[in-house]
Structure formats: C-alpha cells, structure tokens
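name: query_chain
kind: protein
chains: 1
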Amino acid sequence: MHPMLKPALRRAWRGRNTVQFGVTPAHAVTLGPMDIATGSFLELLDGTRGLPLLREEARALDLSDRHVDLLVRRLAEAGLLDDPRAGGPEADALRLRADAMERQRPDVASLSVVHPEPGSGLRRLAARRAMRVQVRGAGRVGATIAAVLSGSGVGRVDVLDGGRTEPWDVAPGGLPAAAVGERRDTAARQLVRRSAVAGSSRTAEADRPPDSGPPGLSLIVVAPRDGLAVYAPDPDGAGPWISSGTPHLYAGVIEATGVVGPLVLPGGTGCAGCLARHRADQDPQWPRMLTQWRSGRRGAVPACDLGLATAVAGLAAAHALSFLDGELPASTGARWEAALPLLDWRSERIGPHHDCLCGAAGQTEGELTSEAGPARDTMAG
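structure:
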C-alpha cells in the first residue's frame, strides 16, 4: 500500500492538537491528539511512499514505527486514506487512459470522499464503463440527463424519443440550437457522443466477450417531454420494466413544478401502479381528471422553465449515478418536488400499495436517512 491522504478533503487545525479533515458535516472527520511532528508526517502521505519508506522517514521526526503504523491504521479506519495503485485491473486500465483520467479527476475525488475504502473511487468510476442506461425522452430534461451520464463515464447511454427537435427543446448542456429540425434520437446520439469521456463507450463494448450480446440495462431514466407522464406515470407503460426487474427513475417538469423520483426497484419499492392507487385512495376524482388530461389536446408548448429543467436534470443524473455506484439515493421509493418560485425541495414516500400487482407490498423497505451530523471524532492515540 502507498498511503495517500485524500486530496479532496481540506485540512485545518482545530486548535493546538486536533486536525479536521473535510469542511462539511457530512464527511468531516477530526483527528487527535496531534503533535507537531505527527502533523509534519502527514505531509509525507502523498501516495509516493510505501510503509517501509514512511517508517524510515518518520524516524527522522522522532516517530516510532509503532506510532506510524497506528496512525496509518487510524487514518484508514476513518476513511481518510486512498491508494493511487488500488482499485483492481479495471482501475489499472482506466489509469492508462490519460485523457479520460484528466477529465474525470473531479469525479474520482468526489467518489473517494463518498466511498472510504482505498481505491474504491476509481474502482466505481471504472465500473460505470460497463453499464448501460436508457433515457426515455430528449427534451430539456432528458437530453441533459443523457449528456451528464455520458460525461460521467457511463459506458453506453441510449436515448429514445420521436419526432424532430423543436426550438424549445434546446438547452445548455442538452440539445444545441444546431439540432433544430433534426430527428430527436439522432441529435441525442450525437450529444451523447460529444459528451462521452474519450474511449468509454468503445472500451465498454470492446471488453465484452464477442458472443455475449449487448449489455443489459442497468437503469432506465424516464424523462419525457410531457411532464404529466412523470407526475402521473402510466402503470401499463412500466409493466415490462416491473416484469423484467429493471430499475427505473422518473424525472421531469410539469407546468412550474420539477419532479425527481421515484426510483423504482421492482418488487421492492412502490411503483407507478402503487402511486396511482394511492392517489385514487386519497382523491376519488383523480382517475377521472387524469383520463381527461391524458386524452386532451397537446398542441400547446409545455411549460418548462429552463433553470428548473436544468436543476431537475442535474439532480436526477446525480441520483442515477449514486444508484449505479451501488447506493440507494433518497429518491428510492420516494419523489422529490420543487415548485417555482420558491424552489423548496420536498420529498414524499411512495410506499407499496397492497392492491398493486408489483409485489412490493409483501417486502420490508429499509429506512433511508440522510442526516448530516457533526464531524466525527477519531482519536489517533
């Protein structure tokens, strides 16, 4: 191991003998007691030295081998250490792609903060290259989500939509003005290619055995241009995803309200059918009105504020990446909403409904918490 203090976490002395790593409560850790010699030793943890050399240089600071080993162990247990050589063969292959690594250094740094094990950040980034995500919708929200996922290293991002690009589909980070008049699916594919990290899609495909076929879907992001299909998703449309066990996440804008979620884990969390049944229980007139809205004329340009659409796309992409990296984001079995002009994001749990055929009602959902407490205290002895 070549220990390296995670460079993404800023250091500051909290007094004469305590060091804090990290600024925000979500990831900050305090370490103490810390003397001047040990503080100087921290500068040596830059990933260029193995433990034998670290022990040797520590002796010049009058620090014992035992003190070094204990300090390194405590730092590792606190999630403060990385190893620039860790991560496995997939990470090693990614390191050889200098252009990709330079572009995604901020992503690796972020993943190293979230996932404490040495090398886990690069390992997860490398794992994204073998994943396939389908984005359904190439409007202001969907196209931007596809671009962010592709730029974040997801190996294959497919975008499904029909018709031709309209002027109101254009958005910074999404479809460009030059795409107006082109087929939406063609313009979206070009956007995904432009956004992709160099070689990511080719590598993801090249690394697969020749007879293995296309990679299975890791996630479907439902981001149609008609926000009603997100606010009140059609259970029949989601039926094949429930049957195949494909996770899917809803995201969109309706009128002046942004929606992210739920992220549906088939058989484990509430689905579109559960949501429809809950609404009908709460408002018996809801199904009647929904039928009218779905069958009404759709000639008007939908209300979709650009700033709100961009915020929804960014939040949805972040939730999707968190899921792809092995976590359960706050949209799992829940929906987040924010309405203009206040933009106060609020969440609502979408629990399984006992009459829904998805089977989730028979499962026990884990509680998701996102409490940010004070910085953790880790005593270095």
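note: The chain is about 40% helix and 15% strand.
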